[in-house]
Amino acid sequence: MATLNLSVTVPDAQATAILADFCAYNGYQETINGAPNPQTKAQFAKQVVIKFVRESVKAQRAAAAALTASQTVITDVDAIVMS
Question: How confident is the model at residue 58, as a pLDDT?
Fold first, then answer.
């Protein structure tokens, strides 16, 4: 399996705050049922990015398939001889 490495460069002084803000925006909870969240903010951020990539790929592939299907139907129907 190939590895797709993505990195985002941010100022060192802002890295912790940017990660915290990204996680908060996407619903990260510091505690779950009163216990510390076993998932780190970095793990959570990676999970969110993976979900975004997966959903983007699905949407793109679905749109491409719909366009291909539509073009096929139009070609097929246009080829029907009617009089």
Answer: 98
Cross-strand pairs, 35: 32
Q: What is the pLDDT of residues 19-63, one digit of tens each?
A: 999 999 999 999 999 999 999 999 999 999 999 999 999 999 999
Burial per residue of 33-53, b for 16 or more beta-carbon CB atoms within 10 angstroms, e otherwise? eeeeeeeebeebbeebeeeee
Please tell me the pTM assigned to this model.
0.82
Token reading at 26: 């996407």
Find out whether 28 and 41 touch, Cβ atoms under 8 Å.
yes
Instruction: Tell me the Ramachandran region of residue 33: left when phi exceeds 0, alpha when psi lies from -120 to 50, beta otherwise.
Output: left
How far is it, in rounded angstroms, from Cα 42 to Cα 48? 10
